[in-house]
Amino acid sequence: MKFGFVTCVQLGLSCMEAVYDVGGKLDLVISLKDSQSINKSGRIFVDKFCEKNNISVHKSSHINNADCIAAIKAKNLDWLFIIGWSQIANSEILSAPRKGVLGIHPTLLPEGRGRASIPWAIIKGLDKTGVTLFKLDEGVDTGGILDQLVIPLSEQTTATELYELVDKAHIDLMRGIYPQLKENKVLITKQDDTAATEWPGRDPSDGKIDLDGSVFDAERLVRAVTSPYPGAFTKIDGIEYIIWESKILDSNSSDSDKTLTFKDGILSLTEYQLKN
Prior knowledge:
The chain is of the alpha/beta class. It folds into 3 domains: 1-98, Formyl transferase, N-terminal domain (Rossmann fold, 3-Layer(aba) Sandwich), CATH 3.40.50.170; 104-200, Rossmann fold (3-Layer(aba) Sandwich), CATH 3.40.50.170; 204-274, Formyl transferase, C-terminal domain (Methionyl-tRNA Fmet Formyltransferase, Chain A, domain 2, Roll). Helices cover 26% and strands 26% of the residues. The chain has a 7-stranded mixed beta sheet, sandwiched between helices. The protein has a 4-stranded antiparallel beta sheet with strand order 10-11-13-12.
């Protein structure tokens, strides 16, 4: 079996390291050209890792370029992993490796197809989420499932904590699935489309706290969009604040000089800053 990897972020590099942790081997790594997205969050350069492990590197401006397809076919790849990559692979890329292309989505598919998986899991008050390793097809997170890991959630889980758990689960999935792929012993299960849900994308403006809503919704929103996301925000006495941490008060006492009053409770702002 021959394997390739497409990435340009730290999570992808960590997943490549996981392949080698279990005695695996990559025959090709595709990444962005060095001049692209230099300021991209988490952007890494694959050169040192690939040189150390004698892996061929191909750099391109877009995964769907003809040069990427040619590079995959020249290496006669069986499987291609795409992890931490914002460009959507087209049908030519999906069919270039002999067995297919694999990705990881941070929900328990078919629940939560789409975007903003970490914030939505908290906003929706779920008691668990997870990560799914699946075979990419031309749909949005619709391909067959190879494996899943469950991540329990509590009423205190923050986006910061869940982000770290999701990253760790990516690595654990990679360590677990590589030996199965190498031995051609993997089972791919079709998703149950009747159970599918789709979560829409979010932008910073969705972090606005609804002061006419519930204190419980506001507290979940703060946890859902805290770091590494842009944060929840609201105005107090005409001044706009970003709220990174909060708690619902059991009484009118507070350990913060800033509180928000809702129809069903009071939210104490325990970590905040002025919004620029």
